Amino acid sequence: MNILIEENTIKEKIKKIGAQINHDYANKNPVMVGILKGAFVFLADLLRSIEIPLEIDFLAISSYNGKASSGVVKIIQDLAINIEDRDIIVVEDIVDSGRTLNYIIENLKTRHPRSLAICTLLNKKEERMVDIPLTYVGFNIPPVFVVGYGLDYDNQYRNLPYIGVYDGK
Ligand code: IMP
Ligand code: MG
Description:
Elements: E1 2-5, H1 7-24, E2 31-36, H2 40-47, E3 55-65, E4 68-77, E5 87-95, H3 99-109, E6 115-123, E7 136-140, E8 146-147, E9 163-165
Helix pairs in contact: 1-2
The chain binds inosinic acid and magnesium ion (MG).
Magnesium ion is lined by residues 35, 38, 93.
């Protein structure tokens, strides 16, 4: 596996994003919504770099089969928290075509949150098909298929502590 982003580089970036969120959401008690399964590692680390009061919740969706985007997004497990009038930070592992987040954003907006921000660890800009406003971005990466740090290929490799380029082996 070729390493694209080292464990330490991820750690440093998470400290910076955490500091920004501390500043932007002081006294707001935001709800951080992790998109399962991919974002659970990022969310777990990001949380611990944030000191302000906050709540977390999860939304489990399916959008991908293997490496090809199906374009079909389905909610498998919904939020437990009522997000009306709450400040929401959606935490995602990667934004690729943007279809998944577009669906999620439209869905969450119907519940009338006070605000809605997106925090993604990885951004594959070049593959974007739907414009998504990203508030916090960890790393812009080239259009390669990556695994590790929560990201999978057919549910494997989520446990790698770094981001690697999947080489098909
Ligand atoms: P989008 O709908 O095309 O933006 O795809 C977003 C979702 O596809 C993410 O939540 C990931 O689960 C998955 N995905 C996109 N690119 C990759 C990748 O390089 N590795 C692993 N999963 C990916
Ligand atoms: Mg995902």
